[in-house]
Amino acid sequence: MKKTNTQAPWWKLHSGLVIVLAVAVIALAVLSIFRFPTAGQATGLVRVCDLGNPENLDVNPRLQLDVGQVKECAFLLGDGAEEYFLSLTANIDGTVRYDLETQNRDEKIALGLLGPQLTDTRGILVNTEDVVPDVEFHYANGVFEVVNLRAVTPPPATGTLTLHLLRGTEDNDLNKTFTALAQVPVTYSVEILDASGNAVTTIPVTARLKINNQISSILNASSLRSGTSNTFDFIWSPAAVGYQNFTLIGEAQFEPQNLTSQKSYDIAVDGIIYQLSSDPNYPDVTLKLTNEVTREAQVTYVFQNTADKQPFSVPCSGVTALESLQLVPAPQPGSAPPTTSSTAGSLLEVFGFDAQQQRTQGWRAGAPSEFTQLLSHRGYSLKLKDTSTKWMFTLTCTLPEQSELPSLVRGWNLVSITGYKAVAVTELAAKKAPPGTSITASKELQRNDVVSAAEAVSLVPGKSYWVLVQ
Length: 470
What we know:
By secondary structure, the chain is mostly beta strands. It is 8% helix and 39% strand. The protein has four helices and 33 strands.
C-alpha cells in the first residue's frame, strides 16, 4: 500500500514558540490586573488629592502628584503630628509653581518654580528650629514628587551649621525679636559656625536671606560687601514701621549630604511689633517692644467714640490696676499729643467673665466690683461714659517670646492670647483643654456683646473669644 505523507500540526512543530507566546499572554494579563507601572510611569501616582485625608509622609515617604490633575494637596509630617498644604500651578512653558504653607495657610514655608532647567529643590525645613532639612521637591514629566528626607535619607554623619545674625559691631547673636529704626541703614552679618562653634572655613558655604517670605539673592553676591568664608554682610534699612521678618538660610557641602540650616528673626521696626487696626468691632491696638533684652513692652488702645460696648484684651503679660489707668483724648493726625488726662473711673466701665462661676463680672469706680485689674489671657469689653471724642490709654507689660495660651475650664470661657502672632484654635484645644474634653465652639466677641456667626479658627492678639469646652 502506498504511504501517504502527512504533516504534523503546526503547534506540535513549533511547541517551543507556543509555550513562549502563552507565557507572554499570561504575563500581560497579570500586569493588566495588577497595573504594574511601565517605564517612565510614577509608582502610586496621585490624580485626586483628598484634603480631608492628608497623605502621611512618615508612612509613605514619597508622594507623587499628577500636576495635570492635582492643584492642591495636604500631607502630614513629623510622626503625623503636623499638617502642611501644597498648591501647584502648571505653566505653559513646562514649569510648575509650588507654594508650601502651614495647615491654616497663615505662614508660607517655601515657594518657587521647578521645570526643565531646575528639576529639584534643595532640602526644605518646614520647622525653623530644625537643623536637618525635612522635605525635598522633584519635578519631571508632569509628576511632582514630595520626598520626606528624614524617612528616606539618614541624618548626616558629620557637621552641623549654626546661624548668627549680628548687627553692627555686636558680637552676640541678636535676640529672636529685636528692634530697628525705619529708614536707618544698618549693616548686618550672617555668621555660620560648625557644631563646635568654630568658623566654617574649610568647606564651601553660602547664605540666603528671606525678608517677609521673599527670598533674596545669595548673600555672597557681588552686590553685597565681601565677607569671610563664613560671614556674609548686607545693609538693610526698613521702609515702613511695624513687624518684619528675617529668615536666614545657611548651606554647606558636608558629606555625606549637603546641610541646610535655617533661623528666623522678628523685627520690631520703630519698636512696633504688632498692630490691630481697621476692625470696626475693636479699638486700634499698637504693641511696642521698648526693650529687646528685658522684653518690656507697651500696648496702646484707641477706643472709638461710641456708647457701644467695645471688646479688647491685653496681648502681653502683666497686671494693671483699673484705677491707675489714665485716659487721654486721641490726637487728630498731625496734631500735638494731649497734655491732660482723666482717670478711668470717670470715663468708663469694664466687663469681664468668671469662667469658674460662669457669670459676667463688672468694674465701676467707687462701686462694689468683682474685679479691679486687667489680666492677660482674659477677654474684656469696655463702655465709655463720654463719647464726645476717641479715648486712648497705654499699659506697660512684658512681651513673651512665644504666644502664651489661656487656661480653660468646662463650659464657656472668655479668653485671649499674649504675643504678636495668631494661634490656631486646634493648638489651644490640644494644649489647654482639660483631659477628656474638647473645644466645641469658638466665637469672636464683637461690639455690644454680639458674637460672630462664623467659628473662629485662630485667636488674634488684642481680641476676645468665647470658647466652649465640653
